[in-house]
Amino acid sequence: NAGVTQTPKFQVLKTGQSMTLQCAQDMNHEYMSWYRQDPGMGLRLIHYSVGAGITDQGEVPNGYNVSRSTTEDFPLRLLSAAPSQTSVYFCASSPRGLGGGRTDTQYFGPGTRLTVL
Amino acid sequence: SQQGEEDPQALSIQEGENATMNCSYKTSINNLQWYRQNSGRGLVHLILIRSNEREKHSGRLRVTLDTSKKSSSLLITASRAADTASYFCATDKTGTYKYIFGTGTRLKVLA
Questions:
Q1: Nearest to A50 among B31, B97, B100 (CB)
Q2: For B51, which DSSP code?
Q3: Which residues of A touch B63 (CB under 8 A)?
Q4: pLDDT tens track for B17-44
Q5: Residues of chain B with pLDDT > 70: what percent?
Q6: C-beta atoms of B42 and A50 within 8 A
Q7: Is there a contact between B71 and B89 (Cβ–Cβ < 8 Å)?
């Protein structure tokens, strides 16, 4: 198993550009989520999904869109990049979700370091 | 706002000593988890404790949970230089699927 993979590892954007951060997992996990981590801080939840076709907002959803058309993939779209979105982005997956009731251990990808100029 | 807050923010100890870090949270939870993050890398799950458990062990790790005080502690015994990392607690609020992370404790173990 590759676990949770994220691409790209690094990205530089100009203000106003759009892009998609890719996240994929091969563990058949129902739950997937996106976080951002700013220097010296913990992770803040952007969006999450409890199964294919179901997504919901986290703590800091503004400026980001997600969709979940398959169990494996959970892309994060930046609609119009702003310098405030400079951060490290982590994707995670967990085996609990639809019908699973409680949440469970999360498995994290290696992160995407995004700089917006 | 952060659900979990770790204390202390930073901790520096000698190799072989024990390291204790604490986490406080605000709402009822299903479980509490501790993660480790080495500099610039993804988080690695260490241990999960459910709301009906009070203590859990895994190798050199000991986690306690006090739901009445809404707090947890992580003890690393006989620390090693390789334990140098940031440690985060994460909670999932009862009735939601949202994980909320604390701000972390930066642990430095000196050889």
A1: B97
A2: T
A3: none
A4: 999 999 999 888 888 999 999 987 889 9
A5: 96
A6: no
A7: no
